[in-house]
Write a structure and sequence with these properties.
The protein has 8 helices and 14 strands. It has 250 residues and is of the alpha/beta class.
Length: 250
């Protein structure tokens, strides 16, 4: 099992905090977001992690090094990181052709048990979803029927043309088995070849759902937060991190 972490973006919505350093190096409780993510991946049993870098990548490479607690760490450069996250996922497409992969956004603070649920789930393809979310329209929705993810898209895009029973907000972690991963890599190539590089990279995952069953596992109330805005960082420090520390016995 490998991991692919997307950490190439500029984090403009967190400026000025990200004017001198990438978002993944913002620290909470004395550890960066990316170091915390690698902690969780290594603890969950991931054998190797590749990180897609771009903006101020030298800082990330120097901060994390080439191994984390015995887990090898590699870097994949996306020179077009200003053009959106789909090109970052495309940069790491070969990982999906080699092995089962856990895809993770590099800007999530989370209880480590959440990542373990995805990595250690018996199913080959697994999304992590938050069923109790406030729907502003900007969240990425998992549309679920009988436990299977039928579609993934932002709420503002409207309802999908597939039957579903419930929704959950995607947390930013998904396990992709190698069979589905081979098609995902080909789909990414097709999107880039056709110039469809703007918008959410999740559109490529949505494309393969009809042919590859993905299940949704729930957060079940465990704490997490995606950090996009200054208010997210404040909530992470004041609310989410204290809950994580309680779970860890600190």
């Amino acid at each position: 099992m490998r991991a692919l972490v997307l950490a190439a973006g500029m984090g403009k919505r967190l400026a000025p905090l990200t004017e001198e350093r990438p978002k993944g190096l913002l620290e909470l409780g004395g550890r960066s977001l990316l170091a915390r993510l690698l902690d969780g991946l290594q603890a969950a049993g991931v054998a190797e992690t590749a990180i897609v870098v771009g903006y101020r990548q030298a800082q990330i490479r120097a901060h994390l090094g080439d191994a984390h607690r015995g887990m090898p760490v590699r870097y994949l450069e996306n020179p077009a990181y200003t053009k959106g996250p789909l090109l970052s996922l495309w940069t790491g497409r070969a990982e999906f052709e080699r092995d089962d992969v856990v895809l993770a956004d590099g800007d999530v603070l989370f209880a480590p048990a959440l990542l373990a649920r995805v990595v250690q789930a018996p199913e080959s393809n697994v999304f992590l979803g938050e069923p109790s979310f406030v729907d502003t329209g900007e969240e990425l929705n998992l549309y679920v029927r009988a436990g299977r993810v039928m579609a993934i898209r932002r709420g503002v895009m409207g309802l999908p043309d597939v039957p579903f029973e419930s929704r959950a907000e995607w947390v930013g972690f998904v396990k992709v088995g190698r069979t589905a991963g081979v098609e995902l890599a080909a789909t990414l190539d097709a999107f880039v070849r056709e110039g469809r590089t703007e918008g959410d990279y999740e559109a490529t995952l949505d494309t393969i759902l009809p042919r590859h069953p993905f299940v949704a596992v729930s957060t079940e109330g465990l704490p997490w937060i995606e950090i996009d805005f200054p208010q997210d960082l404040q909530a992470a420090e004041g609310e989410v991190l204290p809950r994580i520390r309680l779970l860890e016995g600190h």
